[in-house]
Amino acid sequence: MQKRISLLGVPMNLGQIYKGVALGPTAIRYAGVLERLEELHYHVTDYGDIEIKQVAPSIDEVCRLRNLDAISNISEVVASKVDTIVKSGEFPLTLGGDHSMAIGTIAGISKHFENLGVIWFDAHADLNTPETSPSGNIHGIPLAVNLGLGHEKLNTVHAYSPKIKQENIVLIGQRDLDPGEKELIKKLGIKTYTMQDIDQLGMRTVIEESIAYLKDKTDGIHLSLDLDALDPSETPGVGTPVEGGISFRESRLAMELLSESGLITSAEFVEVNPLLDQRNRTAIIAMQLITVLFGKKLL
């Protein structure tokens, strides 16, 4: 793992409807992520938060997506900042913020790789398009956007599309899929480990198979971890909780195995909402998983 880390907050809250998720980066910092990474002998540069100005909520009259123009503009800013971080040779670690931020983060990262792999650790697939989205919330479509699907204002962020290939994606932890997402996963043949698969195979097998699947055909792997992948009994501070999720112990094991692989080249931890949390519990778990990803051991 790269020993120099660039920490960047993306207090995105326009991709969904709940207040508070913009405070996610601050909550994770407050949980001590910077100090814990430095204890592991990383050199961490904290670039603070991207400025996100509040705008009046809007719904596009044609595609029915919420806050389309604002998210498109912010995604360009995020992509440019992350692009600069990757050019510097540092590991980009971004904190959110709702998952629509992945439109910008992956746009800034993927241009530096021929075949970027993506591990999407999430209760949801985020593979909706404007035509299939039940809500119009853009935090439910970023993975589809990065595949080059959906609205042009989003999938052409940073002036190229697509950012990733369907065969370079692994979904882990899904248990709430919309009909259009199920259809797209099957149509594109996207590698998916639902909660049923995790229950049947065990997390070690899921991660080992994911690493084997991506290792030889990718030149870098981005981890996009939504805290709602975990069961809401452990991470209550998320906007779209779904019962029956991954345990903290399973998540920790996943981070240990990914750390040991040495293949993760960028990461984001998203959807921490302190206003829905209990004593910053979700942010603390995010901090703990981040430190394990960067090599913290129990012994």
From TrEMBL:
UniProt key word Manganese: yes
Cofactor(s), by name: Mn(2+)
A Pfam family the protein falls into: Arginase
GO MF term list: arginase activity; manganese ion binding
Residues reported to bind Mn(2+) 2: 124, 126
Catalyzed reactions: L-arginine + H2O = urea + L-ornithine
Pathway noted in the entry: Nitrogen metabolism; urea cycle; L-ornithine and urea from L-arginine: step 1/1
InterPro entries: Arginase, Ureohydrolase, Ureohydrolase_dom_sf, Ureohydrolase_Mn_BS
PANTHER family: ARGINASE
Family: Belongs to the arginase family.
Name used for this protein in its record: Arginase
Organism: Heyndrickxia ginsengihumi
Gene name tied to this protein: rocF
